[in-house]
């Protein structure tokens, strides 16, 4: 299926993925010298995170030394648990700008190895604010509206919006930071 622009391809892929219950991201995008532009689009859970040596394993090895040298309270400290949303999903689309000035999509792998979500709350990409939503946030912030009221008005404007209150707070901090540029702290 040919598209007129790269943005059109991305919008199509993201809207189709949203309907199905997953999120797609740009995995790779380049235009080598002398070649046509190309991109790879994949599931946000594409590939697995790099295997790391567990900090817990390292601490276990060092625990014996710590017990001898320091008190037991220090040796029993647990490392912070970390996780990744990557699960080795291989869903991937290749997008290439052809000689006919059209963008062509090729399915490399159309299979997911995870369940699709019923809602996209908690996914970074759908929680982002669009430009019109940022303008609304900026205007309402200047009128000293509460973040929950700002979120409510954004959600009234777009029923499919999955933005959370944390995004509103972060955006307000970003706006204050931009406003403070060039001003002294005193």
Automatic annotation (TrEMBL):
One of its GO terms (molecular function) is zinc ion binding. InterPro entries: FHY3/FAR1. GO terms for biological process: regulation of DNA-templated transcription. It is found in: Nucleus. Keywords: Metal-binding, Nucleus, Zinc, Zinc-finger. Transmembrane segments: none annotated. GO terms for cellular component: nucleus. Putative transcription activator involved in regulating light control of development. Belongs to the FHY3/FAR1 family. PANTHER family: PROTEIN FAR1-RELATED SEQUENCE, PROTEIN FAR1-RELATED SEQUENCE 10-RELATED. This is Protein FAR1-RELATED SEQUENCE. It comes from Stephania cephalantha.
């Amino acid at each position: 299926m040919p598209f007129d622009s790269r943005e059109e391809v991305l919008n199509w892929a993201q809207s189709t993925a949203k309907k199905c219950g997953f999120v797609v991201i740009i995995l790779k995008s380049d235009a080598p010298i002398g070649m046509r532009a190309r991109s790879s689009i994949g599931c946000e859970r594409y590939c697995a995170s790099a295997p790391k040596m567990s900090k817990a394993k390292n601490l276990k090895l060092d625990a014996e030394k710590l017990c001898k040298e320091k008190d037991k309270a220090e040796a029993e400290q647990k490392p912070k648990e970390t996780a990744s949303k990557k699960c080795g999903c291989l869903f991937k689309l290749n997008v290439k700008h052809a000689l006919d000035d059209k963008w062509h999509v090729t399915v490399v792998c159309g299979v997911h190895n995870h369940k699709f979500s019923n809602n996209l709350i908690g996914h970074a990409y759908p929680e982002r604010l669009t430009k019109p939503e940022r303008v609304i946030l900026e205007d309402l912030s200047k009128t000293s509206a509460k973040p929950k009221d700002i979120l409510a008005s954004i959600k009234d404007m777009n029923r499919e919006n999955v933005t959370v209150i944390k995004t509103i707070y972060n955006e307000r901090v970003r706006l204050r930071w931009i406003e403070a540029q060039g001003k002294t702290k005193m």
